[in-house]
From TrEMBL:
GO BP terms: DNA repair
Binding site for Mg(2+): N7, E34, D147, N149, D247, H248
Protein's UniProt name: Exodeoxyribonuclease III
Organism, scientific name: Sphingomonas cavernae
GO molecular function, one term: double-stranded DNA 3'-5' DNA exonuclease activity
CDD domains attached to this UniProt entry: ExoIII-like_AP-endo
Positions of the record's site feature: Important for catalytic activity: D218
InterPro entries, alphabetized: AP_endonuc_1, Endo/exonu/phosph_ase_sf, Endo/exonuclease/phosphatase, ExoIII-like
Top-level class of the enzyme under EC nomenclature: hydrolase
Coiled-coil features, chain-numbered ranges: none
Keyword field: Hydrolase, Magnesium, Manganese, Metal-binding
Presence of keyword Hydrolase: yes
């Protein structure tokens, strides 16, 4: 079973690239982020035409997350995170699909830091930790997939010095991500590529793609029941180089079927 996460950077603008990727790679489950689409304008017909059912949590112009499943409709479990009722950002959706509990996550960027946006990022990470702990308690195979906007280690970025002041790799961001993993979640990409050097994002600015000046912020965290089935994990890097591509590449893991 192949589970992928893909920040599409605007589902309507990137729809041809998304449909192309679905057709060529055929993931069983695809978690999408940064839809930049309201619920009403989500391209459900196109997604169904590609053979996928979907649940989504949209927001006009920015944010937005979805879970796609090949040949079936995901069963929504939760949208949004508890703990901050006034938070109207569409950044989290969770569903049961194909025997897995799956969440699609779009964590706040947090820049500029310090400041209110970074404070919001840290609060959001704490709320995610609380939800992740509850999912673990259910003792089900689960995958928390998404754009975490956290660079966990220095070898997850082309140049640590260039990013040292960015919210993505502040000590507080990294500590919160480690706390999440230490609950019992397995970082699929890190497990399969322990020496780092795997990028999932290349900025449009300053020739980031052309220079391979990227970093890893898209993660798939596996519960113990899912981690026991881990076969492989990698990045569909070649798709990033296509015309009008997202600045992220799809990141995936393969779990052994039960």
């Amino acid at each position: 079973m192949k589970i992928a996460t893909y920040n599409v950077n605007g589902i309507k603008a990137r729809l041809p690239r998304l449909l192309e990727w679905l057709d060529e790679t055929r993931p069983d489950i695809a978690c999408l982020q940064e839809l930049k689409s309201s619920d009403e304008t989500f391209p459900e017909a196109d997604i169904r035409g590609a053979g996928y059912g979907a649940v989504w949590h949209g927001q006009k112009g920015f944010n937005g997350v979805a879970i796609l499943a090949r040949g079936v409709d995901p069963v929504e479990v939760q949208r949004g995170l508890d703990g901050e009722p006034e938070d109207e950002h569409s950044r989290y959706i969770e569903a049961d699909v194909m025997g897995l509990r799956v969440a699609s996550i779009y964590l706040p960027n947090g820049n500029p830091q310090p400041g209110p946006k970074f404070d919001y990022k840290l609060r959001w990470l704490k709320r995610l930790q609380d939800r992740a702990r509850a999912v673990l308690a259910e003792e089900v195979p689960a995958v928390l997939a998404g754009d975490y906007n956290v660079i966990p280690n220095d070898d997850d970025v082309f140049n640590p010095q260039a990013m040292m002041n960015d919210a993505l790799m502040q000590p507080e961001s990294r500590a919160a991500f480690r706390t999440l993993c230490f609950q019992g979640w397995t970082d699929a990409i890190r497990t399969r590529h322990p020496n780092g050097g795997v990028w999932t994002f290349w900025d449009y600015q300053a020739g980031g793609w052309q220079r391979d000046a990227g970093f890893r912020i898209d993660h798939l965290l596996l519960s113990p029941q899912a981690a026991d089935r881990l076969v492989d994990a990698n990045v569909d890097k070649a798709h990033r180089g296509r015309e009008k591509a997202s600045d992220h590449a799809a990141t995936w893991t393969i779990l052994r079927d039960m």
